[in-house]
Amino acid sequence: MRVTLNRKKIAVIGGGITGLTAAFYLQKCATDNNLPLDVVLIESSLRLGGKIQTLRKDGFIIERGPESFIDHEESIKELTSHLGIQDEVIDNKEGQTYVAVGSHLYPIPSGVLLGRIPLVSSLLTSGIVSLSGKFRAAGDLLLPKTREDEDEPIGDFFRRRFGKEVVENIVEPLLAGTFAGDIDHLSIQSMFPEIYELEKQHRSLIFGMKKSQQFLFKNGIKSHQTFRNGLETLVEKLEEQLPAKSILRGVKVESIDKLDDDTLRIYFNNIAPIKCNAVIVTTPLNEAKNMFHHYGILNDIPNMNYATIATVSIAYEKEAKLSYQDATNFYFARNSDISITTCTWRNHMWDDVVPEQYDLFRTYIGRVGDEAIVELSDSDIEKTVHRDLEKAIGIKQKPLFTVVSRWKQSMPQYTVGHEKRLDKMRNIIREEFPQVKLAGSSYEGISVPDCVTQGKRAAQELVQEMFQWQPSS
Ligand SMILES: Cc1cc2nc3c(=O)[nH]c(=O)nc-3n(C[C@H](O)[C@H](O)[C@H](O)COP(=O)(O)OP(=O)(O)OC[C@H]3O[C@@H](n4cnc5c(N)ncnc54)[C@H](O)[C@@H]3O)c2cc1C
Question: In 219-305, which residue ranges form alpha helices assigned H by DSSP?
Answer without folding.
Answer: 232-241, 285-291
